[in-house]
Every structure is written in C-alpha cells, then in structure tokens.
Amino acid sequence: MPKPHATIPLAFVELPAATMQAKAEAFHALMQRRRTVRDFSDRPVPRDLIETAVMTAGTAPSGANQQPWTFVCISTQAIKARIREGAEEEERAFYAGRAGEEWLGALAHLGTDDQKPFLDIAPWLIVIFAQRWGHDAKGKKIKHYYVPESVGIATGLLIASLHQAGLATLTHTPAPMNFLNDICGRPDNEKALILLVVGYPADGATVPAITRKRLPEIATFL
Prior knowledge:
Elements: H1 17-32, H2 47-57, E1 69-74, H3 77-98, H4 101-107, H5 118-121, E2 124-131, E3 133-135, E4 141-143, H6 147-165, E5 168-172, H7 179-184, E6 190-199, H8 215-218
Antiparallel strand pairs: 1-2, 2-6, 3-4, 5-6
Helix pairs in contact: 2-6
C-alpha cells in the first residue's frame, strides 16, 4: 500500500459570475495587446521584477509536481554578447539553407534575418531549460514526466506575468541551442528550449501587421 500523502486546504476564493467575466475580458484585452517585439530599448529593468515573474512561472502545474525547469536570468553585458555571437552563428546556417525553402517562406512576412541585435540590447535574457531527468536526495537519477508540456505551461505563465507587469518579450529559438548550456553553465540533463528576451520596446518600435485567429478557428465546443 502506498503511503498516504499530506494535504492542505485549497485556497480558493469564488467570485460572482459578473466579476469573473469582467476579469477574464480585462485579461484578454491585455494579452490581445501582447506582441512579439524585436526592437528593444536598453533601459534597465529591476531584478526584483524579473524574480517575481520567474516565481510566477514556477507556480505552473507539472508532471508529478517535479517542476522540471530552470530559468537562467542574464543581465551581464559580456554574457549577453556571447549569447548573441552563438545565436547568430546558428542563425546564419539556418538562413543559408538549413531551414529549407518552405520554412523560410513561412517566415518571410515577418522580415526576420540572421542579425539579432536585441540579444545584447535588451536588459534581460531568460534562458528556459527543461530538466530531462533529475536526481533524488541521494544523487540517484530519476525520470521526469511530461517535461515539454510542463515547461511550456511555465513559459506561458512567465510571458503573461512579464506583460502584466508592463514589459515586452521575444521568444527566440536558435537551433540548435546547445551553446547555451556552455555559456550558462548548465548540466547535461538540461536542454535549452527558449531564449526569452525581456525589456521595454525601443522608441518608435514597430511590429508586423498580423491578425489573430477568431474563436471559431481555434476552438470547438461539444
């Protein structure tokens, strides 16, 4: 028989239906204004703000509550410059043919290329690592479950938290991302999934003119 697990009372506050709808609509309006930004200011962002957003990300649900994520938060200019150098090296290969014509065609309307100046202009970079496996208190290797799903949910909470606070972000995914383990000093059981750029948008920043899919295009109600 498995040992009974400890429990605590659920901290849940029920709201009136009208309040729930109003809060949902207000948050949707906020996130509807969220856009991926590629023109960042070097204006400083307090570390406390980044710490709070990461703690919010850490509240995400995860397989077996293993919390298989590591957030490496970088403001040191020399490290950001190394990351830009490594990312642009991978991006040059990507745009030179590694991606294939179909993928490059899908990106064409966004106007992206292999130059990533935002990586050493923005005040913060957050490298999000997935812990493919872990270790118990005795150092024994233990399997982690639902790692990509868990880290994906945590990343969504992180982005939402940062925008709620009034910042802009960019999800950057140079491929491969192995160079980030070396730069960030992370062990082999961790895999970099996303390089999140965080800060204020530059004055006069623009974004591609895109539209988001409507509710009937993304949801089915049964």
